[in-house]
Amino acid sequence: MTTVGVPAQSFEDRMDTVEFRVSPVAHIVVDGDQCRGCTTRECVTACPANLFVPVADGGILFNYEQCFECGTCYMVCNRRGAIRWSYPEGGHGVVFRRS
Amino acid sequence: MAERFEAVVVGAGPAGSAAALQLARAGRAVALVERGPYPGSKNMFGGVVYARVLDTLIPGWWEEAPVERWVTRRATVVMTPTQSLTVDFRTVDWGEPPYNGATAFRADFDRWLADQAVAAGAELICSTTVTGLERDSSGRVHGVRTDRPDGDIEASVVIACDGVNSFLAKEAGLYPERDAHFFTLGAKEVLALPRAEIDARFGLRDRQGADFEIIGCTGDIPGGGFLYTNCDSVAVGVVLQLPGLARSGRRPEDVIAGLKAHPSIAPLVDGGELKEYSAHLIPEGGWEMMPAMVGDGILVAGDAAALCLAAGIWLEGVNFAIGSGAAAGETAAEALAAGDTRAPALARYRRRLEESFVLADHRRLRRAPALVLSDRVQSRYPDLACNLVQSLFTVENPAPKPGLRRLLRQQASRSGVGLRHLALDGWRALRTFG
User: Distance between CA A46 and CA A41 in Å, rounded?
Assistant: First the structure.
């Protein structure tokens, strides 16, 4: 859906408005085996940064680099332990300026 | 070798900075540890700081606090896809000292508040993530571990102000099993518009600001929306209950797009250029989800203690964070002075919160979050209210005007609301807010 008078925007453009100081170490670890058996895929819908993408083999492709560190993914996940989550190392991750 | 402070405060948001401020003022050696490169860098919110709580902590705060606009227009909106009904309140009083609410960027406001703690003597340590608690064999907390080499910090008391996900409160065993129903996701866009254009669209002058709180804009997902003005931008966003969001199959940015396209919102945000997209969890469950606030050597404040107030017509968080943080800092300072930071000595914190607005408001409004997120309040009542007003003001000549009672009965039945439900929810609302 696009808004009247506002140019259509790709999700990539949307995320480009946010600064991320990407850590070399992933702060979220997703257990691919558990995800392949999951049919509900709450994380795919709910993650505001759209970091969880279903792939053809039934698994989920995951990218931690543009994470808001909100915690939605592990909170909505119905499989205990499928998403292991901590904070990125100090000074890294999302940096909000005008929010 | 671990560094040694008397107290360590984890998280330099409003709760942490208020706690560190009070500890430093009491002459205690306090470290304020922040994982972001600067305070506020990890934070976003739904827009308004109600800073009356600062009057005693930082007298004259409004002379120096970095705010965007002073809210002088507070609109409460209920909407359907094609209609909206607004209670639009305006007052010049809130645009003058001592003010009421202000819009702000957290990167500015939180940094300013942390600077107050530093000026009082607290040591602010940024870019440092606390990875866990240091506990002795009895479980008593005596410091934190960080991700810096040799970065562990020994302290007689730890104040966990580490936000909505509070790993420290969980590690300390203060949280029961957490329920996703108690959490909402806030997602927001900041859209740049020329200042004069914002003033014209919202009917504002100088530093006056507008804050719209909206219900009925989130479809099948329990939640709400908001729109408010900064100096040179407007912020528009939604708040979505997690299980409802996960079930809906809709993505957060699509729900925002729907709100922006609404006929009564679109003219206010048209042409705004996206400057920053952001998202954050909100602990909306209030009283029902609060952890134990105190353990041996540890206190919990702010969002980490679920102290955000999401009570429908009142949506506040920063003030509750500051109020609880200050109370935690004062309690910790007294405990340090007495040489005892075990749980019984820290229990005064809970009593302080009960005696202040922090827990008084939460206790009084404990039924509000569930009522506000209920199906009837979320979709049937906005539908009923909008249709009732539309039928009231639609002139159907040559038919004569129907009576108000008949209209109410008709529209209630059309919106799937029984009059019994109306009476029942009216009673519930009185009990909740009365």
Answer: 9
Reported as a single tens digit per residue, the pLDDT across B321-332 is: 999 999 999 999
Q: What's the length of chain B?
A: 434
pLDDT digits (tens, 9 = 90+) for B162-175: 999 999 999 999 99
What is the CB neighbour count within 10 angstroms for residue B174? 21
So where are chain A's domains? 26-95
A-to-B residue pairs, Cβ atoms closer than 8 angstroms = 147
* Residues, chain A: 99
Q: Which helix (H) or strand (E) holds B225?
A: strand B223-229
Mutate to test the interface with B, among A70, A78, A86 (most CBs of B within 10 A): A70
> Any idea which residue has 């507070």 for tokens?
B74
For residues B228 and B71, is the Cβ–Cβ distance under 8 A? yes
Q: Report the predicted TM-score, pTM, of the whole model to 2 decimal places.
A: 0.96
Residues of B in contact with A89 (CB under 8 A): 129, 147
Which residues does residue B182 pair with via DSSP β-bridges, in sequence order?
none
pLDDT computed for residue B308 by the predictor: 97
Whether A16 contacts chain B with CB within 8 A:
no
Looking at domain A26-95, which of 3.30.70.1450, 3.40.50.10840, 3.40.1050.10, 3.30.70.20 is its CATH number?
3.30.70.20
Of B42, B56, B44, B12, residue with least CA distance to B30: B12
What residues of chain A lie within 8 A of the CB of B252, using their CB? 46, 48
Token couple for B24: 């430093």
Round to whole Å and give the CA distance between B73 and B95.
9
Give A-chain residues touching B245 at CB under 8 angstroms.
45-46, 76
Contact check, Cβ <8 Å, B129/A89:
yes
pLDDT above 90 as % of chain B: 94
Say if residues B52 and B326 touch (Cβ distance below 8 Å).
Answer: no
Cβ contact B65:B116 at 8 Å: no
Domains detected in chain B: 3-66+104-176+291-365 (3.50.50.60), 180-283 (3.30.9.90), 374-433 (no CATH)
How far, in Å, CA of B248 to CA of A45, rounded?
8
B261 and A1 within 8 Å at the Cβ level: the answer is: yes
- Under DSSP, the state recorded for B221 is S
The answer to whether A99 contacts B253, with C-beta atoms less than 8 Å apart, is no
DSSP A63: -
d(C-alpha A14, C-alpha B187), whole Å? 12
> Residue B116 gets which letter from DSSP?
H
Reported ipTM: 0.95
- Which residues in chain A are contacts of B190 at CB distance < 8 A? 98-99
